[in-house]
User: Fold this.
Amino acid sequence: MSRQTYSPEFKQQVLQEVQDTHNATIVARRHQVSPSMVRRWTREARQSAGESQGVPSLVEENTQLKRLVIERDLQIVVLQDALRKKGISP
Assistant:
């Protein structure tokens, strides 16, 4: 059994119809394509659109959030030290 390949234009047409109808199964049946294939194309298109719009990956976002927490903790320590030096208990 050989694998069927689809042109980018065909995939784009199918994806547009899925976006219009919000139903991958109906669009898949109309074009005689497996519904799971259409859902995969949809997922891949969504991921690729997210990457092209500069959406940070989860790893990058997690790293950035960790940095922010460390900076905030450092600010708290500095402020607590300043209060202690002034004789005010935090």
